[in-house]
Amino acid sequence: MSSSIGVQNGRATPLILLTGRNGQVGHELMRSLQGLGRVVAPERVGLDLSDPDSIVQVMRDLRPQLVINAAAYTAVERAETERELAYRINAEAPHVMALEAKRAGAVLIHYSTDYVFDGTKTAPYVETDTARPLSVYGFSKLAGERAIANVGCRHLILRTSWVYGMRGKNFLRTMLRLAQERDTFDVVADQFGAPTWSATIAAQTAHIVAQSLAADDRGAWWDARSGLYHLTASGCASWHDFASTIAAIAGSTADVRPIDSGAWPTAAQRPANSALDCSKLWRTFGLRAPEWDAALRCCLDGVALPETLAAAT
Fold first, then answer.
1. What angle do CA 232, 20, 96 make, to 5 degrees?
2. Phi and psi at residue 140, to the nearest 5°
3. Which tens digit of pLDDT belongs to each residue from 228-258?
4. CA–CA dist 242, 300 (Å, integer)
5. Alpha carbon of residue 210 to chain centroid
6. Alpha helix stretches (DSSP H) within 182-310
7. Exposed / middle / buried, residue 119 (Cβ in 10 Å: 0-12, 13-18, 19+)
8. Is 301 exposed, middle or buried (0-12, 13-18, 19+ CB in 10 A)?
9. Where is the signal peptide (predicted)?
10. How many other C-beta atoms lie within 10 A of the C-beta of residue 280?
11. Quick one: which of 23, 42, 159, 306 could link to 112 by a disulfide (CB 3.0–4.6 Å)?
């Protein structure tokens, strides 16, 4: 049986179970969480998120004090025809994690999405706005949120948007390829959100974890802060703005042409407005986030984020 508590600098450090280590956010978390505890990733422990029994066994064997669920079914289009699998990964797995976390007194950090909203609001969405998903993916993620909240374990649900990085399949890497291969290409200009670097998500998550470890009573600290938060970069852009900025930073001369979403039909409907208001997160944890284009430049230049985690003023 693995020990779930270590000691560092005279203070107990947790065993952290991290799912999705090969994804964009999980990969960055492996780096950001260094020094905050002993991180165990699923590849090493045989975790299968599509199998509830596997989740139960792993959590009971490892006895983690903190579970960070960075894994998800994110194939938005394919989810329309793979509803059962999307719900199994995005709703049922988090539900089982929450049940086991409550049973053991552990904390669960879970990531969700802007796609829980229908995009009809003209201002950024706050956490208390009514969720109205437009797609199977959005419904499955909302079901996961509600399952965790209903269980009532100590938890953070962190909604983010338009996640990108230099790893895996994402909008950034697709645009870099198109900017290199084509003289011109079209990008939707009537959907808006905050492009968010996976490193931003990981850094802010780690900052929150570090705060909890410094608390004299960690249980009370989490009890006072458990809930739903929005976590994105600052600012707002259209997909066309995002693509044009990528091309410009990369030194491409390709003509990035704006089009309406109606000219690019998809199986899954997407929200026109994905902007999320992150004031609650910043106020609660003393954070601020980089502007989306400043973070994008850091990502493309291969440099670390600037100091974005200092107390907000």
1. 95
2. -65, -40
3. 999 999 999 999 999 999 999 999 999 999 9
4. 13
5. 18
6. 198-214, 218-225, 239-249, 279-285, 292-301
7. buried
8. exposed
9. none
10. 16
11. 159
- The amino acid at 298: C
Digit-coded pLDDT (tens) for 12-53: 789 999 999 999 999 999 999 999 999 999 765 678 999 999
Tokens 């079901």 correspond to 143
- Interior/surface letters 139-164, b for 16+ CB within 10 angstroms, e for the rest: bbbbbbbbbbeebebbbbbbbbbbbb
pTM (whole model) above 0.90: yes
In the block, tokens 């990085």 appear at: 165
Q: Is 125 a catalytic residue?
A: no
Q: What would you measure as the largest C-alpha separation in the chain, in angstroms?
A: 60
Q: Which of 73, 137, 164, 229 is catalytic?
A: 137
| CATH class label, 5-168+195-232+275-285 | alpha beta
In which band, very low, low, confident or very high, does the pLDDT at 65 lie, cut at 50, 70 and 90? very high
Can you tell me whether residue 35 is helix, strand or coil? coil
- The closest of 140, 159, 126, 99 to 268, measured between CA atoms, is 140
Comparing CA positions, the residue from 88, 109, 90, 113 lying closest to residue 98 is: 109
Residue from 29, 1, 35 nearest 17 by CA: 29
